[in-house]
Amino acid sequence: MGKASTVSSWLCCPCRCLFCGLLSCLFSVVATILVIAGVVVLALYLLFRPHLIHATAASADLGNFTLTPQTWILCYNLSVALSVRNPNSRIAIHYHSVEAEAYYMGQSFARADLPDFYQETGETTVLPLAFAGDHPLEGGVAAAGFRKEAIDHATFSVDVKLSAKMQLKVWAFRVPGPKPRVDCPLIIQRRNASEPTGASPPEFHPIECRVWF
Q: Which SUPFAM superfamilies does this UniProt record tie to the protein (predicted)?
């Protein structure tokens, strides 16, 4: 028994050494690749200093925002000037598949597709968003919220969201970028129906929007 065990251990030992050597080599290669990739990413970050885009709702006009009784159909005419700035000093941005959507009481009531646009470094683009039409509101909670805000100086809480796809230009190279999402919670006073045509809209204070990827 002792001799058989000794022979078996001696036969298995080279296989164990070979397996351990291959495993150790594989781990070393993977670790080296990860370290090199981390150094490259850090170097690129320090070189280009990428920043999130900045977005501001510069102006907004709520020409019509009414809710028909019983049927709860929301009739709206909303325009927003959304200012988008590329704060990067070394990265230009091409935006495509740009879509804007308007929400009230958590419900989407309007959307609009926008044309592609391009921003050089440090450039600001003003996007004119326009929503007009009608859409049903679901649930009595939304209708009750509308009635409350209509009584409270006809000032309404409207959420405008923007999404797009990015392509980044670094020197002569173009690479796919992240998909930014912009959220602008607006407080807008509705125009008075008795005001003459061409009258200035109620005062609106610019609002910084939240941006994330």
A: LEA14-like
